[in-house]
Amino acid sequence: MTRIFWLFILFHVSYEQGCDFEKSCASLQIDKYWGETSGEVPFSPDAPSQDHTYQNSSGHYIFFDLKSVSTYTNSIIKFNDFFNLTEEQSTKCLKFYYIFDSNYQVNLNVKLIMGDLSEVKSTWLTINSFTNSTKNWTLAELRLPNDAYWIQIELDLSKYIPSRVLLTLDDIFISTECSVKTPQPRNKVLYWCDFESNNCDLENTMRLEWKRLKALDSQDQSPKKDHTTNTENGHYLSSSKLTDSNSAYIERVISPPITIPDDGIPYCLSFYYNTQLNLEKQATIYISVIHLNSTDSENQLNNEIWSNYKQIKYNEWLWGITNLVPGEIKLGFLVTNNQNREISAAIDDIKIHSCFSVNYPKVYGDYSDYYFEYKCNFDRDLCGFSKSCINLNSEYPSNWTRIKPENNIYPSLGPSVDHTTQSNTSYYLAVNFSLPLRSNFEARTQSKPIFTHSEMCIEFYYYANTEMFSLNSQSFFGLTIGGCYATTLNLNYAFQNYSEPQWTRVVVQLNSYACRNYLIFYFKGADIIKKSFAIDDFRVYRCDRIDPITTTTVTTSTTTSKTLVTTTQNTTIPISQTTIETTTTSKESSSTTKYITETTQEISTSTTSLKLNSTQHDKNNSKLVKSDLFLPFL
To answer: How far apart are CA 19 and CA 48, in angstroms?
Structure first.
């Protein structure tokens, strides 16, 4: 449901806020680094002998006390009241008088703060101790934008503390007598959802689902009142109860397409959220922007634009806000539980609106982007895989390259075709063995960041070959994770027991933690025997969207000279057992054989085989568990 009007519910405004420091000041929160005095009791030899209010020595003002500062910090004066000027017709401004000087440049900033976690901070006025140095009372004035925010005056000592600072303030007030009286544009709302009528076409994408809920029907620790109406008859969007049985699962909804216009007006996403604290643990909410005009049509980039990672209040509705960039987008709302507790979360009053108190952003930062699903066949480019993610502890680092079969450094070792098209004209990712071979080298390649969770599976095909059959080769390749929980996956495959090389499918299921990670393929060579190693058709998807091989099939392949029929026993196995799919190609004929093995007993065979030993760490039992090529990580 989209509504084109504006509503803020919880705020009140008084236009008499401020202090002249002649009596007790209830309008401001002043931190411990400030003192109050008069001209009759100067705090230093160069302190003003008169205040600004009365212009005499009996009047009072506040001063910054440098002697009270022991560490790098920001000294803050903040208005107690929240200012909601979204519907104001008259002009409002902040005024105060200052004296400022120092022996090293520092800034006194006026910031507008939005969000209960102070998520959005915009500096609207800066007074520099060199550029704006003065020893007489000087007026500072800021025209206040028509928006909703807290006002904060901040002395920035976060990088350097001068040995001498003279800073005094007086007559800090909100005024209607402003030097600039040009009316500001009225606020605009592009999207608003309060969940009172429906769920606003939000689409669930995971097995566990967000649901529209009436507060009266809430259970356990879910909010007993919504935010919009503040009654038990109101509605909000509620997550499922996340428990230890679904730890590392996620719930995610995405919005319909939304256009953020490039009209010179900054826009923000505002919303209210409520998380329930249980045994000092909380659900984590992430909000991301999904780019619809991306040049990568197959993979949708998500920019994380907000999370409640530092939340300090629980079981109450809090205001969240973040700025948006022009473009065609969808919004993603995601909640996770990595804490093994019964935890839930709720969201209400989602709005996209003009946001005049923030700077006009042009791009999102890439420090927090990630993908939920990702696929790459390397035919177009590297898909964000690094060519060299070097382990600096390796004495002889190597790298990876995107090549065609016809460009193999060792053509006799293959592969003669890629996996995607089964031709010699398409690409795959391979270890670059054209470098000088050493007896000890390592090559790593790292994916773009991916949000891992319990419903995720990693699928890829690899090809491995060597010029000499060896039972004792110490070379191996593997897959690991780097990021927020880097130790949860470490799979190694040793080069042993070859009969014939082929493209081999690997499916790995993850269910340890839900967070932003990187997937890393690595190859470690332990001898100077010529080798070939390649990866193709990499994919990260929900496990229920990656076809498991639960039964063997009869496959017929016909050539001009003969027909090859391979038959195996029809068998169904649980998803936790091993599955292997092997494709073999020769000049005379091409056959595809699907077969299944358990971890200790081979139950079907074919004319080709590849057995690679692998190990994975079972954290619950603290032991190494032998497995094959379907690897649910438990």
So the answer is: 18
